[in-house]
Every structure is written in structure tokens, then in C-alpha cells.
Amino acid sequence: MPHDRGDPMPLSGFLEIDVHNMTRAQAIAAIDARLRRVNASVYRLRVIHGYRGGTVLRDAVRSHYKGHPKVLRIEIGLNPGETDLILREL
Predict the structure, then answer these.
(1) Which of 6, 14, 38, 51 could make an SS bond with 81 (beta carbons 3.0 to 4.6 A apart)?
(2) How many domains does the chain have?
């Protein structure tokens, strides 16, 4: 189940973080903090960055986490307001 609160990590291995009302710097800091806290059960972090207000956050997320040591790959889905950071294969 998607998750974006300070409670314990979910058992499903899937997390969500909503950054679409943040600045670029705030969004990167929030995502970095979440990546530092994930445990081995987490395989996917869905970043909700939105797209109607422009593509600054989307582009920042996709460029910053391309090649990040904890991110295996980036998946772009059908929703243009989301980017999935794949942390490990299932």
C-alpha cells in the first residue's frame, strides 16, 4: 500500500512520497531523506511531483536520481506526474 508518513516502513516494499508543492531543493532533500531511511524490503519509491505547474520537479527528480547509488533504474509510467525510483528487482 502506498505510504508517506512517519510511521514504520510498510511490509509491501512500495513507498510513495509527494513533493509536488515543494521547491526543487526541498524535493531532493525529502527524497534523499526517504532513501536514507528505507530498509531492504523496499523495492520501489514512487515520487509524486506533479506536472501541471511545469516540469522543473520532474526533470530534477529524473536527472538527480539517474545514476544514484541506491537507485537501480528510473521508470516513467503513464501518469506524467509520477516517477518511480526502482531500488531493487523483485
Answers:
(1) 51
(2) 1
